[in-house]
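FORM 12-B: Structure-to-Sequence Request
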């Protein structure tokens, strides 16, 4: 019984730890280049958004951020990494969707949903502020005005 309790405590700790950091995975961008998740926030604060082409709130959120993206980059060194969780069947829709929207974000593909699985399979959209691989802020879903909260939190956590 004692071993069972220790095992359950260990699993609980491991599960809790997995949700406070990005997984150490390598994903491909839209050009096929491999990008390490560990490197995307190394020494800086970034916003990571999990989204899908079939997710209307995801598209609304990314469209809303796109309206001010260039200004945000200049004003507060804001960077968004959009990770598509479209599965292998719908991954082919990602690049045309991104090109059609004119999004300037770095877009990564996670057709196996490894990031979602690591984070406990959260619903999308999931927006996180990450620094050095550690998740400092998480927000799920999107409603108009949520982007303002995200920008304010980013400023606060980035130390601006």
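FORM 12-B RESPONSE
SEQUENCE OUT:
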């Amino acid at each position: 019984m004692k071993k069972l309790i220790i095992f359950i405590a260990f699993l609980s700790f491991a599960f809790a730890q997995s949700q406070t950091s990005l997984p150490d995975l390598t994903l491909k961008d839209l050009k096929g280049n491999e990008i390490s998740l560990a490197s995307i926030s190394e020494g800086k604060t970034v916003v990571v958004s999990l989204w899908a082409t079939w997710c209307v709130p995801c598209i609304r959120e990314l469209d809303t951020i796109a309206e001010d993206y260039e200004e945000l980059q200049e004003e507060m060194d804001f960077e968004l990494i959009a990770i598509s969780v479209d599965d292998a069947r719908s991954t082919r829709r990602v690049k045309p969707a991104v090109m059609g929207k004119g999004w300037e974000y770095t877009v990564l593909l996670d057709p196996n949903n490894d990031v979602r699985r690591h984070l406990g399979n959260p619903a999308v959209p999931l927006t996180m502020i990450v620094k050095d691989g550690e998740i400092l802020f998480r927000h799920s879903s999107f409603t108009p005005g949520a982007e303002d909260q995200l920008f304010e939190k980013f400023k606060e956590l980035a130390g601006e």
